[in-house]
Amino acid sequence: MEVEILGKLTRVNCPPGQEEALHAAASELNQRLKQMTERTKVHNIEQLLTIAALNACYEVKALQKEMSDNEQLNQRIAHLNEALDKALGKNKE
């Protein structure tokens, strides 16, 4: 499959059935790089891609932390529900 990034076509392998997702990812990357070029006035593709990769890694880490925080919150809520059920005599032990 070919994707276009900053006016350049790149041929990439794509698992069957994932073409639409890859096309959407390429479109998102292309848009981000265009915005970054306008914002930073950097036109060196290697620098732009490095910055984009760092931003993507940062976003992934932030989402992982958020998911971990949400999981911890869900566990805390479950423990509180158990404690409430026990206090209200709803525990079936």
Provide an overview of this structure:
Residues 63-90 form a coiled coil. The chain is mainly alpha-helical and 93 residues long. The chain has a single domain (2-90), classed as Cell division protein ZapA protomer, N-terminal domain (Double Stranded RNA Binding Domain, 2-Layer Sandwich). The chain is 70% helix and 9% strand. It has helices spanning 19-40, 45-87; strands spanning 2-5, 8-11. It starts with a strand and ends in a 6-residue tail after the last helix.
Give the helices and strands, then pairings.
Layout (H helix, E strand, L loop, with lengths): L1 E4 L2 E4 L7 H22 L4 H43 L6
Antiparallel strand pairs: 1-2
TL;DR of this structure?
This protein is 70% helix and 9% strand. By secondary structure, the protein is mainly α. It has one domain: Cell division protein ZapA protomer, N-terminal domain (Double Stranded RNA Binding Domain, 2-Layer Sandwich).
The level of helicity is: 55-70%
Classified by CATH, the class is Alpha Beta
Strand order of the largest sheet: 1-2
Whole-number mean pLDDT: 92
Beta strand %: 5-15%
Oligomer: single chain
Question: Per the principal axes of the C-alpha atoms, what is the gross shape?
Answer: elongated
The CATH architecture classification is 2-Layer Sandwich
Q: Which superfamily, in CATH terms, is the homologous superfamily?
A: Cell division protein ZapA protomer, N-terminal domain
Low-confidence stretches: none
Order of helices and strands: EEHH
What is the end-to-end distance? 58 Å
Q: Main sheet? A: 2 strands, antiparallel
Radius of gyration: 22 Å
* Overall structural domain count: 1
Number of helices: 2
InterPro entries: Cell_div_ZapA-like, Cell_div_ZapA-like_sf, Cell_div_ZapA_N
GO cellular component, one term: cytosol
GO biological process, one term: division septum assembly
Family: Belongs to the ZapA family. Type 1 subfamily.
